[in-house]
Design goal:
By secondary structure, the chain is of the alpha+beta class. About 40% of the residues lie in helices and about 20% in strands. The protein has a two-stranded parallel sheet. Helix 2 links the parallel strand 1 and strand 2. Helix 1 packs across helix 2. The chain is globular and about 25 Å long. About 15% of the residues are buried.
């Protein structure tokens, strides 16, 4: 499981609000949770 702060930092530097984040593995859903908090869309496999 990734720390939320790590995902937040990555999304902050490489995406804009309303971008679509693709997480093919999803796992515990940390990326999806952070994406939603940061006003990004997300899809999974």
């Amino acid at each position: 499981m990734f720390p939320e702060k790590l995902v937040e930092t990555i999304l902050e530097h490489f995406t804009e609000p309303n971008d679509i984040i693709y997480d093919p593995f999803l796992g515990m859903g940390t990326t999806a949770v952070v994406a939603k908090k940061m006003e990004r869309q997300y899809i999974r496999k």
